Amino acid sequence: MPGKILYEYAVVRLVPNVAREEFINVGIILFSKGNKYLKIACKPNEVKLKLFAAESDVEQLKANLCSFEKICKGMEDAGPIAKMDLASRFRWLTATRSASIQTSSPHAGLSEDLDKTLERLYSELVL
């Protein structure tokens, strides 16, 4: 299959009460080692967020999501993790954790256009 790019993705989930194990999908992280590609699409629906996580500090949850974006982009103010190579950042972001922001297990796929695939996955799994 010429032109196909191997990628991995994970769904970013908001878990306002970890003990209840309920979550809503709020974003997608897409990674391709061969193409040196790591991007996140994450724009939570504030109305949905406030309904789902009424007892939570929505601004803090949004700040936590913002830190995921900064790590993906390798921004200096994201701390030492942002200085890691792309694969290490993706593995760190998708590591199992008990926190208000979690991810699904990584899934693999093939794409001809990584940006379009990111948009498609975001539309299908988040919106």
SS strand fraction: 25-35%
Calculate the mean pLDDT score and round it: 91
Q: Segments where pLDDT lies below 50 for 5+ residues?
A: none
N-to-C series of helices and strands: EEEHHHEEH
Secondary structure: number of strands: 5
Helix count equals 4
Largest sheet: 5 strands, antiparallel
Instruction: Report, as a whole number of angstroms, the end-to-end distance.
Output: 30 Å
Overall morphology:
globular
Count of separate structural domains: 1
Question: What report would you give on this structure?
Answer:
- The protein is an alpha+beta fold and 127 residues long.
- The protein has one domain (5-125).
- The chain is 34% helix and 26% strand.
- The protein is globular, with a radius of gyration of 15 Å.
- The mean pLDDT is 91.
